Amino acid sequence: MLKKLFSKANFEEKSDLYGLLDFLLASLGLVIELLALLVLAGGMADRLSRLLPASVSERFFDLLLLAPVALAMLLVASLVPALRSHLRSACGLDRRSLWVKLALVLPYWIFGFVYLWLVSWILLMVMRNGQLVLWTFMLAFSLWALVFLGAISGYLTAKARLRPMADEEVPAGLFGFFDKWQGQEGRRRDGQLMVLQNFGPGLSMPSYLGRNLIVTEKALAAFPPEALKAGIVMAMVSQMLKLNRNCVVLRLVALSMAIPASMMLLYSLGLLLGYPMMVRPNHVALVWMGCWLSFRVSNLVMNLINRILFHRLNLATATILGQVMPLVKAIETMSRYNLVSWKSSWWRRLYSSWPGPREQIRALMAGMSGAQDGQPGKPLAKASQPEGQAGEG
Questions:
Q1: Which pLDDT score, from 0 to 100, does residue 150 have?
Q2: In whole angstroms, what is the distance from residue 345 CA to residue 363 CA?
């Protein structure tokens, strides 16, 4: 039914419908995750003990008990992402088969189950020892490890799919510019322009992977040459400002807020469940609830920061290029391939880290006009709204 609905809609209707349904599913996912944690913290973990034999030793019993708890949390949390994946397939954003998707996500699901199970059991044992410093250190280390493991996994996965960019694929005048930029930044000259053979959903801007600047196969086919050059220049500016490194640092700091959030829950709701006189598996669910709350709040903050940085990156890129139209074409191409409507709604601004195309272009033109006022002799290319979208707001 969704495929028929999307096939009959024009671009604006299709993008608005997709954005709204995706936002509703994302909101539903947050509610389901929170309810699952509340149910587990409310005693489901203890009641599961009746299904297990009572003759096993205490430590092995706890290990067995936390396995179905972790599995229940992962299954419930995976329900809405599966629906969102179906939505992307129905609207044409993701054309991969179900088996390809499962082959990509199953290893992460299995790792997540084992990791959550093992960390939960260790947290339970440490909490029973009553050593608060050791408990907080264990929680912080387990969360920080996820950030580093995710970065390493993404790096190794992408590195296996890289190939050098052919000469005919490089936009005109970019080779010399890239070499000069590398030399000015004081980097070793082993950084290259590479192509990432990735056909996942949507379209992404060029970015750095280590010292290499990578462009996806889909971006090579989708972006006009001048727009691709603008995207590559934006990646260079982002690397110069160390934005990726700063985002990782901010994420580590944000995850550290899970410790005070979990402690507040343990000494409020946890008191009603017998903590700290006794420590039970449902108290571990309270710990993960604190982690979940801090993670979701940090996502909102990171989205706001990224939206502000996008505007500044756009202005810096247009200043380096000396013209606006290539960047405008890149913004329009990104919005078309990612089904982002020209006029962003409030709910998209709430959960998206990427500003809408109209918002970006208006901020870009305002910034370039301000720069032109400061430098009267500097030429400025005029940007117009995409065809068929003039007059929308």
A1: 87
A2: 17
